[in-house]
Specification:
seven-stranded mixed beta sheet; 27% strand; single chain; Mago nashi protein
């Protein structure tokens, strides 16, 4: 009888203590974070201060391919907008240029945006709740951002409202 009780106690300890090698790992949070961090919003603005009309262009692109283009004669003036969806090829091109663009940390400003008639580009990239922002003199674009600016400007021109 005492061997039977001893065997039951050993079996209970084996079941209660076995099956785990350390604290539980919360893998769901990591998977959700990966999904969240693959989502992004990209806001591009080009502004030319010393001009008469069509001085402001804006483009907002989301990781799902939805986009909005906007134009205004000047800051503070009513904007004309157009919603559209990027083609699969356009979205791949934006993602590729974006990967190059975020390969280096951004300075808050490049060159002297709006110092004279060259205008300025403004870029905001947001992913994982962390915005990254820069202002750029179009004549002093950093090499890593040039492909992204070129692609965003092409998309804005092709989808003007």
């Amino acid at each position: 009888m005492k061997w039977l009780i001893g065997g039951v106690v050993v079996a209970m300890f084996g079941v209660a203590c076995g099956g785990s090698e350390g604290p539980p790992v919360d893998r769901v949070d990591e998977a959700e974070k990966d999904i969240e961090c693959s989502s992004f919003t990209l806001r591009f603005e080009e502004f030319y201060g010393f001009c008469y009309e069509d001085c402001l262009g804006k483009l907002v692109v989301s990781s799902d391919g939805s986009a909005t283009a906007a134009r205004a004669d000047y800051l503070g003036q009513p904007e004309t907008t157009r919603d559209f969806t990027l083609t699969a090829e356009e979205l791949v091109a934006v993602r590729s240029a974006l990967q190059t663009g975020i390969s280096q940390p951004w300075d808050a400003q490049y060159g002297c945006p709006d110092c004279y008639d060259q205008g300025r580009y403004s870029l905001v990239y947001e992913s994982c709740g962390q915005p990254q922002t820069t202002l750029v003199d179009p004549e002093k674009q950093p090499e890593t951002l040039q492909p992204l600016f070129a692609k965003l400007r092409d998309l804005l021109r092709a989808n003007e409202p």
